[in-house]
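If you are new to this repository, start here. Below is one unmodified record pulled from the training split, so you can see the exact layout before writing a loader.
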Amino acid sequence: MERTGSLSLDRDTEHLAHHLGHGGEHHHLTGALVLTLGFALVELLAGLWSGSLALISDSGHMLTDSSALALAAFAAWLARKPPSGRHTYGLVRAEVLAALANALLMLALISFIGYEAWQRIAEPRSVDGGVVAAVAFVGLLVNLGVAWQLSRGERTLNTRAALMHVLGDILGSVAALGAGLVITFTGWTPIDPLLSLLVAGLILVSALGLLIEAMHVLLEAVPEHIDIEAVSTDLGGIDAVLSVHDLHIWTLSSGQIAMSAHLDVRGLDDWPRILNAARAVLHERYRIGHVTLQPEEAHHET
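And here is the target side for that same chain:
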């Protein structure tokens, strides 16, 4: 004889809504999108006029960020949808898909910057340093404002992905500002593509980290901060639990961890107490909110 114990649907739905049904996240992302897209167009025109790869690259970065922020805002809106008969967890994974798309966009942009910088190092071009420095300084202020706005929202994987893009924009603005000042005072134009490569390298580290994290979630890997052996040991230490098997732990979305396991127990009559004890251990020690446990009565000689 087998029975299944789990947290109630109402509790799960409430927990999902608490972590992912945030209208504030959507508001912060939308405001950041408007600011980023508007200045990206200004920076693109200034880069074409001045001949600066640093400005053009940063503009391309900001245009990519606009797409990234649009994806993030759309994902935040989807994540607010309640569970349905077909999507029983709701659409909480939308933020993970958006983060994955953002990381891939960043890698594509880095490839473009690298190729264009190599061309300009081989054949230097004239650059108007004064225009570059002025536009980059304004861009730095805009990006700092966007980063501040995003940092006030919910720190989900989705908003972290968007914030990563904006931090890359800040680096791009600093590099463009430095390039403009160097060119203005020394006339050394190779600084423009060299600083673009430096920024591309810094962004690459963050993009790869985000890509790996998103892939771990999609592949339902055990969260890095959880030791699955420790979880098994703690469950097995509950009175009347003889063994634990078929243990699975995965991430639904930011702040939402799910787990399922089979527990061999001495008798099913004591299952309500075992289930409550297991819930308490998993919540207090590991912050696992969605738990499904399957009891199996062990037939051992006493």
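Two things worth knowing about this chain: Strands lie at 5-6, 241-253, 256-265, 290-297. Residues 1-23 have pLDDT under 50 and may be disordered.
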